[in-house]
Amino acid sequence: MFSKVYGPVFTLYLGRKPAVVLHGYEAVKEAFIDHGEEFAGRGTIPVFDKLKKNCGLVFSSGRTWKEMRRFSLMTLRNFGMGKRSIEDRVQEEARCLVNELRKTNGVPCDPTFILGCAPCNVICSIVFKNRFDYKDQEFLTFIDILNENIAILSSPWIQLCNNFPVIIDYLPGSHRKLLKNFVFAKHYFLAKVIQHQESLDINNPRDFIDCFLIKMEQEKHNPKTEFTCENLIVTASDLFAAGTETTSTTLRYSLLLLLKYPEVTGCFQLLAITNKAAMNIVEHVPLRHGGASFGCVSKSGIAESSGSPAKVQEEIDRVIGRHRSPCMRDRNHMPYTDAVLHEIQRYIDLLPTSLPHAVTCDMKFRDYLIPKGTTVIASLTSLLYDDKEFPNPERFDPNHFLDESGKFKKSDYFSPFSTGKRICVGEGLARAELFLFLTTILQNFNLKSPVDLKDLDITPVANGFVSVPPKFQICFIPI
């Protein structure tokens, strides 16, 4: 670990360009919070820079970023982020998700696609005002593209392209597919914008695109306006991608961890049986006692793999019950569930280095002179895996977020959405989705693994950009 040799602030060369690395809570807080304005630039990412060209929300800097962020936050709040209306949207989608999971009939399935559809539909309802049926071909195409993009972005090849940008223009490789996917998305959003322009009612904005078009009209005589069609297309696609992929990946990883650690939820494994005749004679009957799920029983009466009492499901039974949908108010009365959700996000370390920042001016930081434009990389892993804040950080343990009396315990080190000026715009929405989707799933289903738990791998298959969980199968057994 370089930080043990060079300290919490050091320079690392990415190709031929230097980058300043921040390691540990104190260094990250001092830079991104205490000196937030100076560290609010976006570091160079050649693959994205080629397409985004300082447009949109995620990969822009300076005045463009400030205007897009301010407008996006205001519009998301107006359309309900953090309010009851967005909660209604997520609850509705959670019910649709449960209906789709019931269609699996308890048969082992790969949850990747279904778990991508739910958060995608929520952000679609905000950006486009409409959701899609889970069988809609347009919808299927977009989910596939998003999953493909994350896999490509997390590959060593893309890291090589970003460190040696000349590769992008002159060599073949997966970056060409990535660029092709971005162009497809850009054309798709342009078509949506044209449709909205044709039916726009300035007195009755329906969604994010309408609000942006109205702002464009108001600013049409301003030669320096940032409210252009190009910024609209890129900002809408940024919201769409960021609002879908990170949440769906976290949901997928959540189910994998809940399978791996049945003591957390009481999820239990379905022992792998290859003989179909043998499979037919086993009837899995969930046992519930006092709201807890203990395991499953075969016709012989012998219990198969059994976890500890289902702490999360027990809390769901006690606080929510079985006859109404979970709501955000419930979270305040569910400390263990809240701790599990926080521990999942800590443990999976979804974005180990977040996205690179850049300093917006020449500055002195901890006796170092950092020139304007220098890329700054914050190790979020160093916060989420700090062994003083989270004892035994390599261990999945919800007690990291519980005090001695079992109450939820906040931590300043918890930063899966980054921190400071460039903290994720959709943090509130993502937190609502994770709580409502997962509690609704566990309210309606027991989870089973078709393989022995010791064979269930939870090691990320790629974490150059995003920590992607390995492929796995799961059975959703209706309660």
TrEMBL record:
Q: Which SUPFAM superfamilies match?
A: Cytochrome P450
Main location per UniProt?
endoplasmic reticulum
Among Gene3D superfamilies, the record links this protein to: Cytochrome P450 (1.10.630.10)
By its UniProt entry, which InterPro entries does this protein fall under?
Answer: Cyt_P450, Cyt_P450_CS, Cyt_P450_E_grp-I, Cyt_P450_sf, Cytochrome_P450_fam2
**Compartments where located:** Endoplasmic reticulum membrane; Microsome membrane
Which coenzymes or cofactors are required?
heme
Q: Which keywords fit this entry according to its UniProt record?
A: Endoplasmic reticulum, Heme, Iron, Membrane, Metal-binding, Microsome, Monooxygenase, Oxidoreductase
**One Pfam family this chain carries?**
p450
Query: So what EC number does this one have?
Result: 1.14.14.1
Q: What class of enzyme is it?
A: oxidoreductase
The entry sums up its family as follows: Belongs to the cytochrome P450 family.
> What is the name attached to this protein's record?
unspecific monooxygenase
